[in-house]
Amino acid sequence: MSSTVNAEVSIVIPTYNESENIKGILHLIKEHLPINTAVEAIVVDDNSPDGTGKIAEDYFESLKEKTRYTVSVINRKTREGLSSAILNGIQQAKGKIIIVMDSDFSHPPQLIPKLVDVLKQSKTDIVVASRYLNGGSIQGWSLKRKMISKVATVIAKQGLGIKESDPMSGFFAFNKDIIKGINFDAIGYKFLLEMIVKARGVSIKEIPYTFLDRQKGKSKLGPKTILEFTHAVWNLYRYGKKEQRNEKRTSVRFVSKAARFFSVGASGLLVNYLMSMLFTTSFNMWYLHATILGIIVSISSNFVLNKYWTFEDREFTPKRTIIQYGKFAGFSSIGALVQLGLVYYLVDEISISYPIALVSAVATAAFSNFILNKKWTFKEKVWS
Ligand code: GDD
Ligand code: MN
Fold it and tell me: From which residue to which does any coiled coil extend (predicted)?
């Protein structure tokens, strides 16, 4: 059931067993439409056993005026989850502006005009209704539920480098155009999170609101949702990494690899030190033997890290790996000699103070090592 009106705003409302809420929320939305705007509500129902979809259809039938506000129902055959329901709703939406919200009164329809306003006025691409912004809050949740939400938010923000205060919000508005070409996984509950990660470079605003826990029906969030969340974040994390590898600017790629190479080098110093200590104290080894072993171990760990992480070479066939290891160890020794020679030259020949000489020598050796290994060990172009 749909209508011919060209809606400007489409409100996507996923439902599963919301027979006690759906009619009321559709009605409340109608009472708070943005002025002079045609709005369509799209209920995406996963064949709720309690007949939610039918109730929504009947509600629309009962309306006298069916132009400025229309309701359509997407009846899906099986339960495929919240994110996928949202995606389905968006695909069917006629409006340029999409709003996503829950059907259980947790998201106040009173906020809809403001979401649309901010989206239009400030030329923003996404407007998020946030519980965690100053002025926002959550009413009626148990401490446990609050903690789960907070922890999930921190993980998403830290793990995926997101700046918004409430990337897990289920209440948001956006310009439909920005998701053109995006491939959504649509796993679990986190549609907004996925959109923020994948629609790179869009502008996002947040406005605070008070989330009210539902009065009727049950939350569908359970242990499965938490597993799905982990899965979704992991996918998005890997997606971000892949984007980095596909980085088109050579300068960014070069600097990023150099930075990784130097971090590995620094970690090697630590490994070297710890190993030498371990061998002398715990194994009672002669200190020169311990030092040599420390060097061997750290060169090896540096090699593996640089192969796998810095130069992203995941082929560990024996012949290839041994040849690379030989070259890497060779360049490391040359690097050490360069460093020694340079320190001697700087201090003795041109009287630079030892600390400065040392730092310059280490930097020069590290950089030339990076270039040599890039070109000869891992067979990349120097500038790539
Ligand atoms: N079609 C469909 N399919 N709808 C679903 C499904 C599903 O599998 N699961 C849930 N829904 C609908 C519900 O009927 C409701 O309208 C909305 O999605 C939110 O579901 P709730 O079960 O009420 O979620 P919640 O209140 O626990 O979680 C809220 O807070 C989360 C952040 O902490 C929601 O706003 C989430 O979107 C939000 O991420
Ligand atoms: Mn809810």
Answer: none
